[in-house]
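Recap from last week: sequence in, structure out.
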Amino acid sequence: MLAPAPGYGATFTDVRRRLAALMQGAPPVASPVPLELVSRGVQDAPTLRAAEPLEAGDMRAHAVTGARAPRFAAFLDGAQRSLVLWAGGVPVVHGTVAAVIRRRNERRMTTWRAPVLRRALYAPMSLLPRDWSEAMAATDLPVVDTLARRTPESGHPFELQEIAYQSVLADREIVEKELAETWCDDSTQHLFIDGGISGSKRVARAPVAVGVVKSHQKLYVRAEDLPLVMRLQPGERSSVVRIAESKRAPVASWYLRLRDATGYDPFWGLVRIEIAEGQGPRREAGVGERADEVSRWVLAEALPLSVPDARWDKMVYGIRDCEEYLRAIQ
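Predicted structure tokens:
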């Protein structure tokens, strides 16, 4: 029997060899590239969504003034890798999900505690041949039935593949949330989180958590205020609003331009920041000062440039370091 990697589960190559041995045949056919390179995953429909103002006055651009000094003690990011084996026309996905917090001590990055790394097999169990089901159960990896909570519309192999990929993404969100909650429970220092913080009530309410969102499929702005956000200049932020999505914790949020977008599209260098909202009937008091303070911290992370990453306009070096670390351990 093949031994899985200590604490993490068997790798894709190990599983492929193990299945071949158990079924006494050649290694199962595998797709040549990870799904991350061919699938868009779960995508929200592009939409504008108005949000409750938290800052007094109309929506406007605010120049973020004052000294920009890095205040983040650590950075959190997650990753996934999804590779497909084929049981005839049925996809079986070997999914790896991981998350890490990289702590900064002066200019040196180290790993905080241990990274989270988990592997599992994702498959529509009712559609698999019996020999595959039995062999998968003997691989020492958890097996996730991708149809346990979802019925496919057509049963097309690519539809089944996409359902499995979405299951891997959901598990990545879980490990990221677990690690963020551990930091927020144990630390009083500020954590830069790649993405939003509203998926966890504990993180969304933690004063040390700052979420930085780089994608803008949903824009939390009224249509009449959209041109203002698109025209933000480097070092400017929008007014602060309250985002309260269904099944997610409310947060305070605003847009911030990191870099000059002249000659680029209007989303160049544009991020959206999430922090815990204030409490009580006067929660708007001081929210602008807090937004300016956190914006200065984020702007301070714009150097050094995260090149050659293609997303360097929004990427900060601490998150790039997380990505490189996760790439090495997967």
